[in-house]
């Protein structure tokens, strides 16, 4: 709705880390960290028992 999107980059089953990439209007948005932590990561942790955390990939740099 706001022109942003999120892409699944990968999942490391050994560590339980999901890597995602923000696209469109979500890149650089000041609310992106809140959305990722409280929305996306929470949903992933709830839906998939093997997931332990989420990492954001942005042009090769990891954050969160």
Distance between the termini: 24 Å
- The helix fraction, in percent, is 25-40%
CATH class: Alpha Beta
Strand content range: 35-45%
N to C succession of SSEs = EEHEE
Please identify, by name, the CATH architecture. 2-Layer Sandwich
Low-confidence stretches: 60-64
- Number of structural domains: 1
**Number of separate helices:** 1
SS class: alpha+beta
Count of β-strands: 4
Radius of gyration from the CA trace?
11 Å
Rough outline: globular
CATH superfamily: Fe-S cluster assembly (FSCA)
Topology record:
Elements: E1 4-12, E2 17-24, H1 32-47, E3 53-58, E4 61-63
Parallel strand pairs: 2-3
Antiparallel strand pairs: 1-2, 3-4
Please explain how this structure is put together.
By secondary structure, this protein is of the alpha+beta class. It has a single domain, classed as Fe-S cluster assembly (FSCA) (GMP Synthetase, Chain A, domain 3, 2-Layer Sandwich), CATH 3.30.300. 25% of the residues lie in helices and 41% in strands. The protein is built from one helix and four strands; from the N terminus they run ββαββ. It has one helix spanning 32-47; strands at residues 4-12, 17-24, 53-58, 61-63. Strands 1-2-3-4 form a four-stranded mixed beta sheet, covered by helices on one side. The chain is globular, with a radius of gyration of 11 Å. The protein starts with a strand and ends with a strand.
What keywords describe this structure?
disordered C terminus; 64 residues; 4-stranded mixed β-sheet; alpha+beta; globular
Provide a concise account of the structure shown:
The chain has one helix spanning 32-47, and strands spanning 4-12, 17-24, 53-58, 61-63.
